[in-house]
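Journal club prep, notes for RB
We'll compare a predicted complex against what the paper describes. Inputs for the WT7 case:
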Amino acid sequence: MPDIESLLKEKRVFKPAKDFSRQANWNKKTAAEYRKLGEKNPERFWAKMAKENVSWFTPWKKTLQWKPPFAKWFVGGKLNVSYNCLDRHLEGENAWRRNKAAIIWEGEPGDSRTLTYGQLHREVCKFANVLKGLGVKKGERVALYMPMVPELAIAMLACTRIGAPHSIVFGGFSAEALRDRINDAGAKVVITSDGGFRRGAPFELKTAVDEACKGAACVEHVVVVKRTGEKTAMKAGRDQWWHELMDGASADCKPAKLDAEHPLFILYTSGTTGSPKGILHTTGGYLTHVTTTAKAIFDLKETDTYWCTADIGWITGHSYVVYGILANGATTFMYEGVPTHPGPDRFWEMIDRWKVTIFYTAPTAIRTFIRLGDEHPKGHDLSSLRLLGSVGEPINPEAWMWYHRVIGNKKCPIVDTWWQTETGGIMITPLPGAVDTKPGSGTLPFPGIHAAILDEEGKDVKPPNGGFLAITHPWPGMLRGIWGDTERYRETYWSKWKNIYFPGDGAHKDKGAYYWIMGRIDDVMNISGHRIGTMEVESAIVSHPDVAEAAVVGRPDEITGTAIVAFVTPKGNVDAGPALADKVRKQVTREIGAIAKPKDIRFTDALPKTRSGKIMRRLLRDIAAGKEGVGDTSTLEDFSVLAKIRESDED
Ligand code: WT7
């Protein structure tokens, strides 16, 4: 994590190139105009965007109804997200897009499929009818647990077509995690596949669904996409193949006219306490936010081949692989597998072969590529690229400069975009044709977004001091709540200050009013740009019968940004050592998924605690980062002496 000291020393400034600005969707003039309007009257700004970028069946009556902390945007308006992503590209002056590529997909083994807007529309209508045939009604939830295949996007759009909110669970999560999410959302149908390809081999998904369904009575149907062709057990009466259901389905399905505040999807994300939160997003505001930001920040043009490397199972994939991109009528490229298969140059080879023009990825990936060596990108023609993006965690200036130099050939603007699952769309970002960039800074809030750096009391912190990032005015893509838990919504986001949203990030502004995001200030870790709660990992570990107690903290890691370190106290009669460490890792993989597996496991006969019984997390973080003592997994470490020295400090 970059510290304030080193970031304050960052003085490099990159101005947008004249020829980029000249052709940009939002040039300096429009950007300045929108910024002014957004500052003075955010509602008017967003209403203008909603009119320009989104198609409505019925216009709204009131732009914003704000009864803190509950917002309603575009009250009374009616629309449909799948209509906006598909139908409107087949009508009127856009009708030529019928045979334009909507999705270009490549599987890890090298197979590929292209779906034009016309074809995608047909598939979505058919699958919407399949869902109806399975008894899915407006408002009923559908869970999606799939690899990165076009059917995932088809299923999402089909859900929105009939007004069934989807809940996508990233394929890397375990059966246990899937079961909890299915139950919390009360999903009636689960859509999955026999598996997918990763690192050169097929992986399974359906068995996890079977496992999850054992404890999920709400599930009536499971639809299975055939992807790998591996042997798959099908439960009679519950499971059906996607292709068989699609075979007889009609391609005629009218998009439902949905209220602007109709639930669009639920997406679970980790918090500081307890179980993951089901973040709820609704229709009109979300679509306005993601469509507008995609157009302005990625400068989407008809001729672009846009590639966001995120899995659709995360918010980045929802907003900027699928909805924001297709709503603009652009071509979205989708890839199934890992960046390093069959070789370390897979991404660059694909950019070259498909002539990708816009590339949006995460700092953790960039740092991995740096380590793999410049010869891999340099061995391919990347001259098709015209814009680069970064998302998920703070990008360190060195990684930014490498991205700029080696991937962008010093000619591509870089947009470092700050946002969250909860914000729905991008919040703080450069506008590529209008805003000077500084390596490591997200620059300025998007027009219509009101941000600040505040202290505990909610007072403005003077630049360049650090404080809490805050969003001081509602925005259209904001979460509307936590599924089934209004109190937690209030408590988590709106209790720190009055009527101001608390994102949980530390940040500071420089003298030029640029934002520099420092990362999470709570007990949430950011592993490779993915959020994992320390408590979640701790409860997974203590669910193992050999473990008495556990504390989990993050430590800096060169590639993943943060690595998970678990301090584990075994039960009295259990030996500490590699065998137990292995069991602990397996337990976490079983309970949550491999992404939450601790990198370091350190055994201790007791966790350091304050007199009041609180685990001394700051001490553990220092120990984990190697500031105190040396780790050795074969013996029990004793932190009691350190704890005594530190006690007054932590209390
Ligand atoms: C957290 C949100 C929506 C992006 C994918 C992650 C961190 C995200 C940046 C950035 C610095 C960033 C924050 C935020 N983060 N983007 N450009 N610079 N930090 O979504 O899982 O909801 O995590 O990711 O800490 O709070 P998420």
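Talking point for the session: Residues 117-133 form the longest helix (17 residues).
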